[in-house]
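To the wet lab folks,

You asked to see what we're planning to order before we commit. Fair enough. Below is the target structure as tokens, and below that is the sequence we designed to fit it. If anything looks off to you, flag it before the synthesis order goes out.
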């Protein structure tokens, strides 16, 4: 199941946010070259989280977070334009109301050799199909992905890594890749194959919470 959590509503869902941050923490600790003890819980919550992004969460059968990413419009502050300023040729900035940025992709078991390909494929597929659906609903033409090397490798092996925009960019001991997706059927197809019959329309958690509060007042 895919759950959408607007950043301004995250305080209402502390368990889901904690699970998402724990996935980030595990991914950060897996990067080579980091000094022991340098990665801690506070390090995985960055400035871009303070901008109230839209979090896209893949939940398993127990409604625990199996994968997550965040979306920000490129008309505001983004990782590619600001954390990696100057990384694109000729100092290009990607700024358009028709393009959003996806970042901080994390997957449960990504660094665990015991994780099953089936579970990983399902999570990647669900997130990708959800991204395409969200983008189409918002009348977007493209999505920019900013992924670390391990996530880029996982997506590349599954044929859904997008078009690389620039050489790897280095930040906080990790190589990051910027990729471009054109919204539509071509983007959807490889993710849909991975998701299989696990796909269902996203659920907006903020809408559910508003309904719950309305029922409580009735």
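Sequence we intend to order:
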């Amino acid at each position: 199941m895919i759950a959408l959590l607007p950043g301004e509503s995250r305080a209402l869902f502390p368990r889901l946010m904690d699970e998402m941050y724990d996935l980030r923490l595990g991914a950060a600790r897996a990067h080579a070259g980091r000094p022991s003890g340098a990665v801690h819980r506070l390090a995985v919550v960055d400035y871009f989280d303070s901008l109230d992004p839209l979090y896209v969460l893949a939940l398993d059968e127990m409604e625990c977070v199996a994968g997550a990413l965040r979306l920000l419009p490129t008309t505001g502050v983004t990782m590619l334009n600001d954390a990696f300023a100057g990384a694109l040729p000729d100092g290009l900035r990607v700024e358009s109301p028709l393009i959003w940025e996806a970042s901080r992709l994390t997957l449960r078991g990504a660094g665990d050799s015991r994780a099953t390909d089936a579970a990983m494929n399902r999570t990647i597929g669900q997130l990708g199909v959800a991204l395409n659906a969200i983008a189409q609903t918002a009348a977007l033409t493209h999505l920019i992905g900013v992924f670390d090397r391990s996530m880029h490798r996982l997506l590349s092996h599954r044929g859904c890594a997008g078009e690389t925009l620039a050489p790897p960019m280095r930040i906080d001991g990790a190589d990051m890749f910027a990729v471009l997706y054109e919204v539509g059927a071509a983007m959807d197809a490889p993710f849909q194959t991975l998701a299989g019959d696990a796909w269902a329309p996203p659920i907006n958690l903020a809408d559910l919470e508003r309904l719950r509060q309305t029922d409580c007042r009735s």
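Structural context that might help your review: Residues 16 and 212 are 18 Å apart (CA to CA). The chain has a mean pLDDT of 86.

Thanks,
Computational group
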